[in-house]
Amino acid sequence: MSMKFSPIFAGVVAALGLAVAPLAASAQEAAETPPAILGQLALAGLLARSGAGLSVMSPAFAAGGDIPFENTQYRGNIFPGLSWTPGPDGSRSYAVIMQDPDSTYRGAPILHWTMFNIPASVTRLDTAMSVPPPGASYGPNIRGPGQPYMGPHTPPGPKHHYHFQIFALDTVLAPEAGGGYDALTAAMKDHVLASGELIGLAHADPTAPPRTPSPPPATH
Question: What whole-number distance in Å separates Cα of residue 162 and Cα of residue 49?
Answer without folding.
Answer: 24
